[in-house]
Amino acid sequence: MKMLVHRTPAATGAPFDLPAIKVHVRVDDGSEDAALTNIGHTAASEIEHFAQIALLRQTIVVTILGPDLDDTLYLPIGPALPDAEPSVSINGQAFTDFLYFPFTRPVIVWGASYLATIPQRVDIEYQAGFGDTAADIPPDLAQALMDQAALHFDGRSPMSAKELTTSPHMARIGARYRGVKA
User: Fold this and answer.
1) Under 8 Å between Cβ of 63 and 4
2) How far is Cα of residue 63 from the mean position of the Cα atoms in its chain?
3) What is the distance between the alpha carbons of residues 80 and 85, in angstroms, rounded to a whole number?
4) Distance between CA 122 and CA 153 in Å, rounded?
5) Mind listing the pLDDT tens digit for each residue in 114-165?
6) Which of 8, 27, 47, 151 gets the highest tally of CB atoms within 10 A of its CB?
């Protein structure tokens, strides 16, 4: 099985509060706004990839080649937004025989007709994220983002790979959100 995942941002704002990052890194004026905005976006991307989440609303497109024939599929990016059912196609044909559980780690449970399709390719599109603004992001993730941004800001232009690191706070919080499958 090979799974390809593509994210398309649907929310237009930044996934962080620039004034809060400025306070966190102790910058009082606007001289570092551009750099801190770039650093904030970088930290947000790192959290999203580390924790397998979407901070702000995104459209997630998953393509599975040679899917497993299990009756349950854990979707790769959470949390899924509960107000929209995913669209699913199998071998290029729309498919609706499934149950969808839009939790922090979204799950699809295939219906009885799934195996009869002899799936070679499954395409799934769904919405994930905590909301449309930085205020919708849980406080622990917002703090982890600020800590990761501070690490980048304080260690700009590292001289070795050893200096490139992850904030311990981001690693701890991100691990809580990362999907764990039984």
Assistant:
1) yes
2) 16
3) 10
4) 41
5) 989 999 999 999 999 999 999 999 999 999 999 999 998 988 776 666 666 7
6) 47
Amino acid at 32: E
pLDDT exceeds 90 at position 96: yes
Question: Do 20 and 143 touch, CB atoms closer than 8 A?
Answer: no
Check: CB of residue 95 under 8 Å from CB of residue 88.
Answer: yes
Q: Output the CA torsion sign for 181, 172, 51, 177.
A: positive
Helix axes 33-51, 139-154, angle to 10 degrees: 120
Q: How far apart are CA 111 and CA 69, in angstroms?
A: 12
3-state secondary structure (DSSP) of residue 35: helix
Using the structure block, give the residue that is written with the tokens 């609303």.
Answer: 57
Go through 38-71 and write b for each residue having 16 or more CB atoms within 10 A of its CB, e for each that does not.
ebbeebbebbbebbbbbbbbbbbebbbeebeeee
